[in-house]
Amino acid sequence: MIPLRMDIAELERPELEAALEARGAERFHAGQIYRWIYRRGITDFQRMTDLSRPLRTLLETDFTLSTPRILTDDLSTDGTRKVLLELSDRQRIEAVFIPDTPAMTFCISTQVGCAMACGFCLTGKMGLSRNLTAGEIAGQVRVLAAATGLAHQPFNIVLMGMGEPLHNYDAVARALRVLCDPDGLALSTRHVTLSTVGLPDAIDRLGREFGGKVALAVSLHAGSDAVRGKLVPVNRAWPIHELLAACGEYTLKTKRDITFEYILADGLNADIEDARQLALVLEGIQCKVNLIPLNPIPEFPYTRPTNARIIAFQKMLAEKKIKSTVRYSSGTDINAACGQLRSVEMSKAQEK
Known about the structure:
The chain is of the alpha/beta class. It contains twelve helices and 14 strands. The protein has two domains: 6-64, DNA polymerase, domain 1; 69-351, Aldolase class I (TIM Barrel), CATH 3.20.20. The strands form three sheets. The chain has a ten-stranded mixed sheet. Helix 5 crosses helix 6 (169-180).
């Protein structure tokens, strides 16, 4: 029996081809439908004018197309935009557009909340409500591309919003295949960065299934298990040596640097000795380090280091031949920066 009202947002193109064929339509129409949805941002089947009327009627009868709905769209003084999106079950997530970085970049979420409970991250304070589906992940890109007028221009995607992407691996992988489809947005995986706290088995799987073409950013934040365990609870299950072994294997597949994200928190991990320890554990790994001065988070009992301490930390890494940059996050005034994705509206909704 053919199921009714399939959600096209959840279908990879071969699956849509099969669904159309099962209903007596030609498979090639799947490519046309994909182009309408992903390249032109059209979600009304009746507006897909190169499809016959009977096919458009079939689509309305047998299919649906779920799309996240923008509730709020906040603009930072630096041009960053943060959108609050509502899903079909009224759950809410946030996504961010970061212009000229130097490319246009969409920062998208993979879960409602997060189970990783990292100490410096407001999303982690929410806990995990549920995983996003592949359609909800790809849908954020569709919505942002339409809102920014970038559907026909190059842009980057960072899976660095709410949630741990590798904790929702299957949906993330499906969403990437949809977005990279030649009839979809035709995104290159080389324009995708996946940010993770570090789940070694899933890192291995990502390397195998995507050929190492997805850039990897790993939230390290310390060079010792004692300090990292305070910040990233998952470190207790997968300590630094296991994580870095998986990262080393990934660089062999990519032939590209892995980026290690390092939140600098005064009194915790920002001393010169911390820099020496970080350089020691990263020795021999093809990498660079993103030093991120702590963004304001009321619940986190540490402060941002002075500029002098940040410079001294970076200088020590340079002396140890570790490449690094200092990343001053965009969108802090609208709580769109690293670790800040948990909107006032979402917090209020949780309290009800």
